[in-house]
Design a protein that fits this description.
alpha+beta, Creatine Amidinohydrolase, 4-stranded antiparallel sheet, 16 strands, about 20% strand, globular
Length: about 350
């Protein structure tokens, strides 16, 4: 008798286990419960982190007297600021646009010259010297110079530096990636652009980051036309990088530009609901997403400018000064016929300077 009761209890237990198994299988197949998601593997931490060097020369590079200067050139403090609500955006006149085209072309020529200097063993200070000389040769003041005390004529952001890297005496190494950010002030108007450069041969991981950053930047530009809200640019960027594991930096943004270095609108590179206005013909602004392979949380170096990723992950960025036109958008800092093609442009059959709807 005892054996028979034990057998019945075992049979009941087996039946219950089968029910539980089937219910679990159904749930995992999507019937009634959420499937367990695997956590995405974080990229391995990089160990070749950049250290601050010495910023030389200790005095600013000279600018010839005949070149028009912005109002902060002497003491570092901008006198004119735009205090209007963020949705109130200046519409440039035909004369303004003509002057901004000239500033944008000069900025592009300076960026091409600085980019040509990027090589293993070259210091970022040497790149700054090239940028400075190229700017003044075009009758332009290098806009970063003494802006809120910034000591150099361009920004050079290497590897894990997100933005605002100060050129110094540390040589670039084979495998580095560097963003060179150029702004010039020519005859009363600013032109602002930046681009990524490979230092010799770089790893596939860095190539993928740069290519994705370029792609999301291009999609954000393509979105722009009269009547569209500026706040939607961030969503376009985030949608473009979705599934890659990359993240778009939230601490820094694009901006309006013209006679002022920074003005309305603010261009946020992440999904947002900020009332930053509606695009209209004659608006000029920058789109400049900073995309990180790991965390977007940043540390600030003691120089109070250089922002680096907290995990040492690399970051990439591109930037144009843009003009809203009747039928779309135009890059005032677009590449010229003699501008060198970058690898990510070659794979796409070239570059664009206008996007018409």
């Amino acid at each position: 008798m005892g054996d028979a009761c034990h057998h019945r209890r075992l049979s009941a237990l087996r039946a219950a286990l089968v029910v539980v198994f089937l219910a679990t299988a159904d749930a995992l197949a999507g019937f009634g419960a959420k499937a367990v998601k695997k956590k995405k593997k974080k990229p391995a931490l990089r160990t070749d982190l950049r250290k601050a060097g010495t910023v030389l020369p200790l005095t600013h590079r000279p600018v010839p007297e005949g070149i028009m200067r912005p109002d902060y050139a002497a003491d570092g403090t901008p006198k004119k600021v735009d205090l209007r609500p963020s949705w109130m955006i200046e519409v440039k006149s035909a004369k303004d646009v003509e002057m901004m085209r000239a500033a944008g072309k000069a900025a592009r020529e300076v960026l091409d010259a600085a980019g040509a200097a990027v090589k293993p063993g070259v210091t970022t200070d040497a790149i700054d010297a090239v940028a400075h000389a190229a700017a003044v040769a075009r009758g332009a003041y290098p806009s970063p110079l003494n802006y809120h005390g910034f000591p150099k004529s361009c920004c050079t952001s290497v590897n894990e530096v997100i933005c605002h890297g100060i050129p110094d005496d540390v040589p670039l190494r084979e495998g580095d990636i560097v963003n060179v950010d150029i702004t010039v002030y020519k005859d009363g108007y600013h032109g602002d652009c930046s681009e990524m450069f490979y230092v010799g041969a770089v790893d596939d991981r860095s190539k993928a980051l740069v290519d994705c950053t370029y792609e999301c930047w291009q999609k954000a530009i393509e979105f722009c036309e009269p009547g569209r809200p500026y706040k939607e640019i961030g969503g376009i960027i985030e949608d473009a990088i979705k599934g890659t594991g990359y993240k778009s930096v939230e601490q820094f943004c694009g901006h309006g530009i013209g006679k002022l270095f920074h003005t309305n609108p603010n261009i946020l590179h992440y999904r947002n609901k900020d009332p930053n206005g509606i695009m209209a013909v004659g608006h000029t602004f920058t789109i400049e997403p900073m995309i990180c392979e790991g965390t977007i949380n940043a540390n600030l170096w003691k120089d109070n400018w250089t922002a680096v990723t907290k995990d040492g992950g690399r970051s990439a960025q591109f930037e144009h000064t843009l003009l809203i036109t009747e039928d779309g958008i135009e890059a005032l800092t677009g590449k010229l016929d003699d501008s060198p093609l970058q690898p990510w442009e070659e794979t796409r059959g070239g570059f664009k300077t206008k996007w018409a709807k």
